[in-house]
Amino acid sequence: MPPEPTLSLYATGRTIRLLRAEIEAATGFAFGQARLGDVGAVWGAGRAADRLLSLTGRRRLVVAPGPILSPYDDPERGFASLRISLDGRPLGGEGGVHYLDPWTRMPVDRASCAERVAWLEARFAENDRRVVYVGMSRWKRPALDVLGAGPAGRPVHTMTTEAAVAAGQRHQGRLLAWATRAPGQLEAACAEAGLPLARVEDGFLRSVGLGASLQPGASIVVDDLGIYYDPRRESRLQRLLAESEFTPDLVARAKRLREEVVARRLSKYNVGLDATALDWPAGRKIVLVPGQVEDDASVRHGSPLVRSNRALLEAARRRNPDAFLLYKPHPDVEAGFRPGIIPEAEALTLADRIVAGISIVDLLDRVHHVETMTSLAGFEALIRGLTVATHGRPFYAGWGLSEDLAPGADRGRRLDLDSLVAGAMILYPRYLDPVAMKPCSPEQLLDRLSAARDAAPRSALSIGRAAHWAMRARYGLLNPIVRALRSRRGVGREAGPH
């Protein structure tokens, strides 16, 4: 018998309230206020609410976990399957069992549910040793805890070499340090203790908003060799690109992913204003020069000859004397969070226009060429079919896809664009669905980023005025104190390559 279409449910506890959408989707019933004759939805047979409704003769819908569950399932994040009964009899589904997509929490068939749960189980199993994080800011931890959870338990957080090594030994764990905040002696201490160490950084599809404004990231890279922006030592990404066999299926997937990123107009941070109202000169080559944070490790270690935004502008003008030069300050620099500002009058002696606050995607839609030190904007230009000149040694240089001007940039292998995308956006990063708070594929993250970007008002920084000034105060006043305290205990002074 099909369920009665007029039935209305009311929740009897927090878990049911958290699962309302799934229960409504599975049963076709709707939740409302508790009224005489309505059905009370309870979590778990035999619990207090179930017994009370039964004793009083009230109708009850009993909901419990189903037979297929992922390691990430809980009331807050949903369950991959639910077992539902009405007045003691199975309701709908396969004998009362309803299968749900682990990310969207919408009904699916059993085979699809099992396949998706198996994928999540594989991600969970990858953390086969207890993860000990080192130097992770508190606001980053909810996402990192999901990506670091595994069969040995939830991650442990530490801030010093001594605490990290002690926790690693206690839990037989694996240490993961935020690359720019790793204590100076951590690598040597891990080697001495026989503990594996890897560095963590943001991935290349990150968020709607800046990391500097505490917008949580939805992708990370975990590198057990080096880190992608520091060419002084081999990174896991460099080895993947140099040695991987890029199968036709993987390259085809990378091509679809690249085309979807471009079609959806996504970037790493997905901030910035519309550029369509700006006028560009007709008949001239338009060159974009993206500024960078000058104390970034990628500039300090990866750009041996051109090491400042002023020097980059000068080099770009020398190489493109007749071009219409656009200078885009880095969003963190533009916001006043990080160093690298060029006074406007000075910048305009070299650039034809300053395009502060404009979306990088809007700019890449309308320029012909990009000149950069090591900026990710160069990679974002490559995937959009633009020519790129690199004055440093970013991860995407040296594979035959860009004009590489820094010494030692050649990698000894030529890659096509989609093989580069396969390594950098599929094999290297880990992705998190920021709504479901479960690991996901890059393709799934595109949906979340598109929705968040479309819901946010367009602005230069995707951050409100009050939050902007609060962050300015944080970076200008609080951070120097924090850095001094960290320096005293060796945080942020990670040793260079050996």
Reported CATH architecture of the domain at 249-418: 3-Layer(aba) Sandwich
- CA gyration radius, whole angstroms: 26 Å
Continuous helix count: 18
Tell how many strands the DSSP assignment holds: 20
CATH topology of the domain at 249-418: Rossmann fold
| Residue windows where pLDDT falls under 50 for at least 5 positions | 492-498
Q: Kindly state the mean pLDDT as a whole number?
A: 90
Provide the CATH top-level class of the domain at 249-418: Alpha Beta
Structure in words:
- Helices cover 35% and strands 16% of the residues.
- Among the domains are: 8-118, no CATH class; 249-418, Rossmann fold (3-Layer(aba) Sandwich).
- Helix 6 (161-171) runs parallel beside helix 7 (186-193), helix 9 (248-264) packs across helix 16 (417-427) and helix 9 packs parallel to helix 17 (442-455).
- It has helices spanning 14-18, 20-27, 48-55, 110-126, 141-148, 161-171, 186-193, 236-243, 248-264, 297-302, 309-319, 331-334, 344-347, 360-364, 376-382, 417-427, 442-455, 465-488; strands at residues 8-11, 30-31, 39-43, 60-65, 81-86, 89-90, 97-99, 131-134, 156-158, 174-178, 197-202, 219-223, 286-290, 324-328, 353-354, 369-372, 387-390, 403-404, 429-433, 438-440.
- The longest helix is centred in the last third of the chain and has 24 residues, at 465-488.
- The chain has 498 residues and is α/β, with parallel strands linked by helices.
- The chain has 18 helices and 20 strands.
